[in-house]
Specification:
- The complex is a heterodimer of chains A (about 600) and B (about 375).
- By secondary structure, chain A is an alpha/beta fold.
- Chain A is built from 25 helices and twelve strands.
- Chain A has three domains: about 240 residues, no CATH class; about 140 residues, 3-Layer(aba) Sandwich (Rossmann fold); about 80 residues, Rossmann fold.
- In chain A, the strands form three sheets. Chain A has a six-stranded mixed sheet, with helices on both faces.
- In chain A, helix 9 packs across helix 18.
- Chain B has about 375 residues and is an alpha/beta fold.
- Chain B has two domains: about 180 residues, Rossmann fold (3-Layer(aba) Sandwich), CATH 3.40.50; about 150 residues, Rossmann fold, CATH 3.40.50.
- Helices cover about 45% and strands about 15% of the residues of chain B.
- In chain B, the strands form five sheets. Chain B has a seven-stranded mixed sheet, sandwiched between helices.
- In chain B, strand 10, helix 8 and strand 11 form a beta-alpha-beta unit.
- Chain B is globular.
- About 5% of the residues of chain B have low confidence.
- Classes of the chains: A alpha/beta (about 600), B alpha/beta (about 375).
- The interface between A and B is large, with 45 and 58 residues.
Chain lengths: ~600, ~375
């Protein structure tokens, strides 16, 4: 076995919760030794739902989108399988991939308009997809069989061997769950996992380091749908009948409940949630019509006892039973070399840039040129258009007119992640960080995109990314213990420095900073100024917005002063400070001047 | 690991074993020599009313078994999905010793259960009306309720011949029951020379029927024919009464149920008719009257045709068992070839498992009381 594989396997084994390992062994022994045909059937159904929920976790848990269409993809997969198997007599080896593909294709089709929507609008739109699918299944009787559905779906048959029930059926379904779980796990681990989390929790911050949150949501939505389609195919073969019930809201509600109860982001959560919620109604069947009440109470108790899902509870139990040492800090490379390797040949040319918000002209015909090694200061009273210019340059806003040319390429109107990948890094007026992540991971997630600008997953191991991130944080005076704290717990000054470290970790050619010194004490300001000077000396171009004229005058090689969206003065700090228009913009017209009292 | 931690881990594992094996929770089953007849019916979900009638009828028959016959039964809720019904079926089959199974009224659930019944060679007795059930050549299904080809023939005959209407509007549920009934109604109306001037499928969760009623009226329909489940039937009739629809309404079998009628004021059900296999609360047969009184005592509710036919079905199975049909294959043979005079009618298989061939039309009088208006014997 290659060494890298051995190391990976050892690392994965070390991270595995022993409770899950014990649970897996228990389930295998139970299925093989104790389970009768009914128990095996329930386990098979739980496996199908586990597959459905693993897919749903990608959308709900990882992409953070409350989709109510997962049952529609499940139902579509079931109907595709039923139609192909009963009308065309096609085998499982065709029906299964076809169901996967059909669900993924539908998801891709609806994703284009739907994924643009936010939060509850997205939920409503996906609910509508489910309802449309249900209406089609009920009313398109000639194709779907209407309310009665399609019967006579044969069991899975592989290489002439019909798998109707028993251990072989369990092996097939749980084998597919294992494959599906492994694929999902591989997808969400390492640096890509950080990127997915950043896109979910702080999309603007993600875009600023080159993560394409939109593409990520699209990929996860389509993949999640494919899991749903596959689960639907298995369900059709197992049940032998497909009826509109597979598309009704209870399936979606079950899927959602399994995800929440098991845990939203861990594959083990999908499996635990499915096992529990498929078995619960069976345990309480004896209660007849009170079964749903008992079932509901049991669910409620579980949610209260384990609000972050059973995987969260399992993690706490593991910590109690086998308390482990905290992860070792990454090795920080010695402080040598440059923070930046930006080429001095960088040139950003902004021409006639304009932006209106309704009737307000936020930016009017602004032009300037910035070259590598320069620090350009942007000043102006509140509402003068400074931040809007940065937003236009970094793609957060689209300009109404003008050009933004970076090294000969017009980047005006590009998406933020694309601009970031071209080498423009950003720190925001209020630090935008992934609050639930450590400082180290906030910086590590930027590192990867810079190394591989074509994709958000560079193929590097997370440990390498963290080591490099630690180096940036160390240079910005973030100590080892602070690196491992969630950024939500850090003081303001440290958060600012983490954000700058993240921007630097993306190896930008140009760094734009919006009031970086705000909230810092004098020592921190001096350290920041020194760092920014070093960066410029190393060839990086910087645009800095700052209200503290003293801070900026000792830093910027050139200042531009804006008022009401227009450039009213530019030049050296001294020249700008003496400009009458600048003085008027900040303090009002001098007495005796035109229009002044 | 510390002893306390080991203990916790062991307790957790033991609890998992106990929980995951459903057999360890719930009633112990299968005593030697007993006739085992599980009752699998929908007690929750949209068909809970019908399923509860099924349950009550079956349980009455099971507890009324002749002296010397030991019956074992358990009631399992099949909910609203085929999957739940199949799980229940697998559960009772896994425990073994089943002679015959009372199966749900829900057609989609029955369709999913049929292949398993055939594979495991266990007969199902049901009152589901979905025609397709007995058209698939499955010898293990026995329907003790007029199927759609019987019930909808009576339904259409009454509208066209008894009421003299030739322009009916048909509102049906978009479920297996509704769509199957609508097909048979359309065929019967065509055969009888009537023209369906308007028809619309209605979702089972729909609450506002006014648009459909207005469209039926605008189509100049001279009668309104319903093929809806219980709760939607009651809601629609209430809205029809409040808007003053002004044309005769002949509903499906749901309207014969006292539980449906109880949802309406007498004025709202006045003049409404419904097809059914029987109407126990309208019967003047002393045996049926005694059964109705017993049912009221036992369940504190009014019995309907579903309860009565399910009672008859189970009694026929017990009768077969008394005559020696203990195993499922013997039971199947007895049901397939036997002839049983129940409280509602006489049952005999037509060779495809259809046991009931009579239908009635009952109507609510000026005080909203049910009475049998027409009988249509031996239609199937």
């Amino acid at each position: 076995m290659p060494t890298a594989w051995r190391k990976n396997a050892a690392r994965a084994a070390a991270g595995l919760n022993p409770l899950y390992a014990a649970g897996t062994v228990f389930l295998v022994v139970y299925a093989l030794v104790f389970a009768d045909s009914y128990d095996q059937r329930i386990l098979a159904i739980a496996g199908i739902y586990a597959l459905l929920v693993i897919g749903y976790q990608l959308v709900f848990g990882h992409a953070g989108a409350i989709s109510l269409a997962q049952a529609a993809f499940f139902g579509l997969g079931a109907y595709v399988t039923a139609l192909l198997a009963t009308r065309l007599g096609l085998p499982f080896l065709v029906t299964f991939p076809a169901s996967l593909a059909a669900a993924a294709a539908l998801a891709a089709l609806v994703a284009l308009p739907v994924l643009r929507l936010e939060s509850h609008y997205f939920a409503l739109a996906t609910l509508a997809i489910g309802q449309a699918a249900l209406a089609a299944a009920v009313n398109w009787e000639s194709l779907t069989g209407g309310g009665g559905g399609l019967g006579g779906v044969p069991p899975v048959s592989l290489f002439g061997f019909a798998i109707t029930r028993g251990v072989w059926l369990l092996a097939l379904i749980w084998g597919l769950v294992a494959v599906g779980g492994a694929v999902a796990w591989l997808l969400i681990r390492g640096p890509r996992g950080l990127a997915i989390r950043a896109a979910r929790e702080a999309p603007m911050a993600a875009g600023a380091v080159g993560i394409d949150a939109g593409r990520m949501r699209f990929t996860l939505f389509v993949l999640g749908a494919a899991y749903g389609g596959g689960a639907g195919a298995l369900h059709a073969h197992l049940l032998g009948v497909v009826s509109p019930e597979v598309l009704r809201l209870p399936v979606m509600v079950s899927c959602l409940a399994m995800t929440i109860i098991g845990g939203r982001t861990r594959v083990a959560g999908a499996i635990i949630g499915a096992l529990l919620l498929v078995h619960l109604p069976e345990w309480f069947r004896f209660a007849e019509r009170f079964g749903p009440l008992v079932y509901g109470l049991a669910l409620l108790a579980t949610i209260i006892a384990a609000p972050d899902g059973l995987t969260g509870a399992a993690a706490r139990l593991r910590q109690f039973l086998w308390p482990g040492a905290p992860p070792p800090p990454p090795e920080i490379p010695p402080r040598a070399g440059s923070l930046s390797h930006a080429p001095a040949s960088t040139e950003l040319k902004v021409s006639d840039l304009s932006k209106r918000f309704g009737g307000v002209a936020a930016v009017r015909d602004v032009s300037f040129t910035l070259r590598g090694g320069e620090i350009l200061g942007l000043i102006g009273p509140n509402g003068s258009g400074k931040t809007t210019i940065l937003n236009l340059i970094t793609g957060i806003e689209r300009p109404d007119g003008g050009r933004i040319v970076l090294n000969g390429e017009d980047i005006a109107g590009w998406n933020p992640h694309r601009i970031a990948r071209r080498g423009i890094g950003r720190a925001f007026q209020t630090p935008m960080l992934v609050e639930s992540m450590t400082a180290l991971d906030n910086v590590a997630l930027a590192n990867q995109t810079a190394l591989n600008a074509r994709a958000y997953y560079p193929g590097r191991r997370l440990a390498d990314a963290r080591a490099e991130a630690a180096s940036f944080l160390d240079r910005l005076e973030i100590g080892s213990s602070a690196m491992h704290r969630r950024v939500a717990e850090l003081p303001h000054g440290a958060r600012r420095r983490v954000e700058i470290a993240r921007a630097l970790a993306a190896h930008p050619r140009i760094l734009v900073l919006d009031e970086p010194a705000a909230g810092l004490d004098e020592n921190e300001r001096e350290a920041l100024r020194s760092t920014l000077r070093d960066l410029a000396a190393q060839g990086m171009a910087l645009i800095v917005i700052e209200h503290d004229f003293h801070f900026l005058s000792g830093l910027a090689s050139r200042l531009i002063c804006l008022d009401a969206g227009q450039v009213i003065a530019q030049g050296t700090a001294d020249a700008v400070r003496r400009n009458r228009l600048v003085v008027a913009a900040f303090f009002g017209p001098t007495p005796g001047e035109d229009g002044a009292p | 690991m510390r002893p306390i931690q080991t203990t916790i881990a062991m307790i957790a594992l033991a609890a998992a074993v106990a929980l995951i094996h459903p057999g360890l929770i719930g009633p112990a089953m299968a005593q030697t020599g007993a006739i085992r007849i599980p009752v699998l019916v929908p007690l929750t979900g949209p068909l809970a009313l019908e399923g509860t009638s099924q349950r009550n009828g079956a349980v009455m028959a099971l507890t009324d078994a002749p002296v010397g016959v030991r019956i074992e039964y358990e009631v399992l809720d099949t909910g609203a999905a085929p999957e739940t019904a199949v799980n229940a079926l697998e559960r009772v089959l896994a425990r073994g010793g089943v002679s015959v199974i009372v199966a749900p009224i829900f057609g989609a659930q029955m369709l999913a259960m049929l292949p398993i019944a055939a594979e495991r060679k266990v007969p199902l007795i049901t009152i589901s009306g979905t025609a397709q059930l007995t058209e698939m050549g499955n010898p293990y299904v026995f329907r003790f309720f007029p199927n759609d080809s019987v019930a909808k023939t009576a339904h259409a005959l009454y509208v066209v011949e008894a009421l003299g209407k030739k322009r009916p509007a048909v509102l049906f549920q978009t479920t297996a029951y509704g769509q199957s009934g609508r097909q048979h109604l359309a065929a019967n109306f065509a055969r009888l020379g009537a023209t369906v001037v308007f028809e619309e499928g209605l979702d089972i969760n729909l609450k506002d029927f006014l648009p459909a009623l207005i469209k039926a009226k605008q189509a100049n329909a001279d009668a309104l024919v319903l093929q809806l489940h219980a709760a939607p039937t009651a809601l629609l009739l209430r809205q029809a009464a409040s808007m003053g629809l002004g044309i005769p309404i002949v509903a499906g079998s749901a309207m014969h149920q006292p539980t449906t009628a109880a949802l309406l004021q007498p004025a709202e059900r006045k003049g409404v008719c419904a097809e059914s296999a029987s109407s126990p609360v309208s019967s003047i047969d002393p045996a049926v009257e005694r059964w109705v009184a017993a049912y009221r005592r036992e369940f504190g509710a009014e019995p309907d045709d579903f309860a009565l036919t399910q009672y008859d079905a189970v009694r026929m199975a017990i009768d077969a068992a008394v005559q020696g049909a203990r195993g499922p294959e013997e039971m199947r043979a007895a049901l397939a070839s036997g002839n049983f005079t129940g409280l509602a009618m006489t049952y005999k298989s037509d060779g495809m498992g259809n046991m009931a061939h009579d239908a009635i039309i009952m109507c609510y009088d000026d005080q909203g009381r049910p009475r049998i208006d027409r009988r249509y014997p031996r239609l199937g």
